[in-house]
User: Which sequence fits this backbone?
């Protein structure tokens, strides 16, 4: 790990992503300013050896570091752990993205540029604004995804188009202001919860169009319980906001 204070830290949560991790790290190394930007791999004790591979990469390239977690606890807790590490290291920008290439590493500089220019305090890589889209998806998955985003947007009463998206760049002050301890969603509802809390805290949210594609290799982490969590979490967030308990 380079000793200087980082400008941006890209948090990559991993669980059984051995086949994707090295190509992703190499791709990020080509688009980041590695003199001031970092990649933080947050591994939840992957049984396939992802954590060991991450350690090897960290030993080979100075812009990579690794945070090992004892067990798989879900996407939300992994990201929170990564956010805390990035803030402790002094990062001005903290990004989150998938390690499976569903988010294009080439888009990372666009998110960073929108945040550093003051365009937004939270910059979202959005599938559902003009210029965005979803590649190699069937009709059924498109309907589920768009339906989920519409449901969350309608219940929460916000205008952000892609509330379920997980490609984000936070300015430091955003993560310092929202209560990370209060974030309770563990699965993909974490993406809805973080964006909603940012909006309710009065920060500017901007959506940058991206093309989202299915993972290259490996298995999806989506389960019925994750979908169910999102369904009940959304009205709970709205109720807590209306009653002043968010």
Assistant:
């Amino acid at each position: 790990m380079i000793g200087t204070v980082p400008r941006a830290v890209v948090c990559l949560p991993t669980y059984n992503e051995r086949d994707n991790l090295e190509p992703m790290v190499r791709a990020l190394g080509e688009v980041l300013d590695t003199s001031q930007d970092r990649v933080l791999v947050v591994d939840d004790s992957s049984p396939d050896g992802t954590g060991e591979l991450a350690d090897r990469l960290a030993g080979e390239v100075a812009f990579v570091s690794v945070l090992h977690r004892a067990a798989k606890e879900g996407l939300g807790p992994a990201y929170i752990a990564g956010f805390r590490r990035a803030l402790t290291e002094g990062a001005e920008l903290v990004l989150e993205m998938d390690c499976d290439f569903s988010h294009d590493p080439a888009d990372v500089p666009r998110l960073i540029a929108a945040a550093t220019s003051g365009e937004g305090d939270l910059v979202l890589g959005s599938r559902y604004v003009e210029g965005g889209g979803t590649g190699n998806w069937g009709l059924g998955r498109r309907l589920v995804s768009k339906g989920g985003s519409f449901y969350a947007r309608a219940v929460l009463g916000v205008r952000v188009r892609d509330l379920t998206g997980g490609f984000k760049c936070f300015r430091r002050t955003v993560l310092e202001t929202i209560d990370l301890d209060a974030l309770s969603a563990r699965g993909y509802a974490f993406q809805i919860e973080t964006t909603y809390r940012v909006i309710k805290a009065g920060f500017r949210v901007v959506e940058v169009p991206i093309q989202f594609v299915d993972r290259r290799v490996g298995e999806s982490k989506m389960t019925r319980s994750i979908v169910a969590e999102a369904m009940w979490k959304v009205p709970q967030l709205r109720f807590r906001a209306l009653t002043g308990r968010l």
Summary: The chain has a mean pLDDT of 92.
